[in-house]
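fold-stage: in
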Amino acid sequence: MNDLKNILLAYFAAATSVFAAIETRTLVTIISAVVLPIVFFAIGKAIDVGLQIYLHRRKFASTRVAELQRSESCTSEE
């Protein structure tokens, strides 16, 4: 649902360029007015997913390091 909302926001933001493209009646401007919001959405989504993966791995790595340090301190006390 969130992705659908973002796609609709991208199209509503590009509505003036779509209307201008229809007004000029050239195929290149019509295609670019329709395709560019999809491209920008895909790029933004790829960056979002990549950032989420990076943050998840960083959080997992930091908790793993903390667990290893705790287990090493427990074994060194014995």
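fold-stage: in (second)
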Amino acid sequence: MAINDIQKWTLCLCACSVLVSAAEILLPEGAVKKSVYFVLSLIAASCLLRPLENIRDFRDVLFEGASPDSSEMIVTDWFGEAANSEYERRIMSLVADELKRHGVEAKKITVETSISDGGSVLINKVRIIVDAHYTERLDEIETAVMNDLGLDADIVVR
């Protein structure tokens, strides 16, 4: 959860508490007050549970790992852990296909993604590791990835 999300959540909780306080002060005792409290409690509960609406994204990131076989390249994040989101697997597949189209076989593709406040997937960084015999073609590889896919990638020779 980003700081901006925490600020929005806190603002929502404060607004709910102000509404409940105003209702307590302004409404007379009786059935109307109980009905308003019930509605306000539903609003407050939805506000409290709001951070859980993105739980599907977190579950994708944490639990849905790639099922690698001998022919499948594994996308990894910057910490070397297997990529767990469908987005990263798709990016890896696109980059690997584009490299193959140019006659390049990558050893490893590293992808760093994040989710924006609006729920869009942001590609922060792509890192491609290739064999040393591609040293003379690094500019060609970088241009192919940039022009054909629109990705800014670091090409590393190992």
